[in-house]
Amino acid sequence: MAEENVVTKDLLHIEEEIDLRRYGRILFRRRWAVLSVIIIVVSVVAIYFFRLPTEYTSTSRVVIEQPENQQARASRFDELAAVTGEGGTQKDFYNTQLEILRGYALARQVVKTMGLVRVYKLPKKLWNVAEDAQVQYVAGKFQKDVKVEHIKDSQLFDISIKTHDPVLARDVTNKLTDLFVKQSIADQLFISKEILEFFPTEAEKLQIETPAGKIEELSRKDMADSLPSVSNDPLIRQLKAKQAELETTLSTLLKRYKEKHPKVKEIRSSLAFIDERIKLETDNVIKNLKASYASQLQVSNVRVVSPAEVPALPSGPPRLQGIALAFLVSLFLGCGFAFLLDFLDDTIKTQEDIENFVHLPFLGHSPVIRMRGGIRKQMENFLLYCEKEPLSEAAEAFRYVKVAVNFSAPTHTLKSVMVTSAIPGEGKSFVSSNLAVSSAQDKMKVLLIEGDLRHPAIAAHIGGKSSPGLSEFLTGDMSWEAVIQKTSVENLDIVAAGHVPPNPAEILGSYRMEEFMRFARERYDRIIFDSAPVMGVADSLIAGKFMDGVLMVIHAGKVGREIINRSKQRLQETGLKIIGVVLNNVNLGTEEASYKYYGYGYYKKGQKKS
User: Fold this and answer.
1) How much is the mean pLDDT over the chain?
2) What is the rounded distance in angstroms from the CA atom of residue 494 to the CA atom of residue 539?
3) In CATH, which of 3.30.1700.10, 3.40.50.670, 3.40.50.300, 1.25.40.10 is domain 347-594?
4) Do residues 139 and 115 lie in contact, with contact meaning Cβ atoms separated by under 8 Å?
5) What are the two backbone dihedrals, phi and then psi, of residue 417, each rounded to the nearest 5 degrees?
6) Greater confidence, 524 or 604?
7) Sign of the Cα pseudo-torsion (132, 137, 139, 142, in order)
8) pTM listed for this prediction
9) Which strands form 549-555's sheet, in the order they lie side by side?
10) Where are the domains of the chain?
11) Average pLDDT over every residue of 5-28
């Protein structure tokens, strides 16, 4: 049981590895699609970021202390919050300060004070409107540029403002900070304007009871004598008693003497001295009272720790981070796009596709061949490539196909092989001619028949005669030997298509065709019949009944699965035996990694075998 589990795990591991390799092959095959998505997305994002103006951020730090008259109350609420889990007064206080700093009212004051309407770009609809509307719009924009952060577990707040000018960033940050400090001072010194407006009497009483109100009241001269601290002062009382005594004496003397009498002058001089002393002592008492009330007044609970400075480096936009993020996103999008293209692309491209979607044996592949020269010379070399380049990759690939065909059935039961494809242009003539050359090089006596009577493409391009050929034999009394042509390849003979007949399907199904194939079987080890495509005409279905097997050629990445499967179905419904599939025009340099093992032992002319 344990061994079975180990085997199962190994199989699962192999399947997973195969799937990963398949996904890797898809990405490699669609690498240009992935690369295109990456280039487009990254380019658009890069252009967007580099078109954005450079931003500078300046920051000031302030301390906001809770007023003393709220601290005791806050501590009681914080104790309650620790028990109930609800927010306390201290937290509410700091949240309030955050909202004030971020608020519209403060932003509007900064905009009006610094004339920021000229700095911010206004939309056309606001060019000719009232200044107040412009200030309102700019204040809303400026409010979004203000960032306030409360440093955790402290009374510190960082006020940051982002603009396109480093000097302006410093100035507006400091201005916002100064306005906030002044507002906090005003809140401490004065009762709200609403109370003063709607409750003037009560507000006046409340104002007097505040430390600031009491200080203001002490400054009034008519209130000095009525103050208890002044009237109850011992020295002032003695001076006033002496003053009253001297005034009585002066009144008695004025009844007997005139103003210039020495005694009258002496008394008046004493009274003047006592008046000065009373005034001096009264001022001292009031001064001491003001100092006492001032000590009770907390002028401001906000102070600046570090003012804003001109930023040395820009803070944004985050161009490199944005481009890096765009690259990662585009990479995922590109991979998804590649998988989508692969899902939508139902063409057959690999051996795996043949096995999974066509469900036919894979006999091998033929690689992409790029040649130069005139069209006729190129075509001749192309069709007899294995003879012209016996040490090439293509020659080795066709030797592999030849072996696969030989092993697909006993030789005596598979003398004749029809080579066909689903549609024109898949390379069946190339495959059939080079398979014939490869078989002939293996000392087999091979006959290559140009069976596509509608569009012949072999004999005329390899130096043979176009006629007489198969059509002349099937429609006349020409002998079998008269249509056989020798080639430059030893052991390889060909039969040309001949003149294009008006009824190819009919003559291919005639008794003369059966007779022709009987003669061929008696004289050759392998007969390769290059037939017309399956779709569109019935030539292959008719001629196929005289063949021992059918080899399908599929051009890699050209034909969809549905067409190939319909061609396969038509062949099988006719009773033809499909021995397998050859995948043509495979790019060994860029296609599937599974083909790489074919490259072992390939070498060019003049190189030593490895």
Assistant:
1) 80
2) 19
3) 3.40.50.300
4) no
5) -125, 125
6) 524
7) negative
8) 0.59
9) 362-367, 578-586, 549-555, 416-421, 526-530, 446-450, 492-495, 484-486
10) 2-51+317-343, 58-101+139-189+220-311, 347-594
11) 62
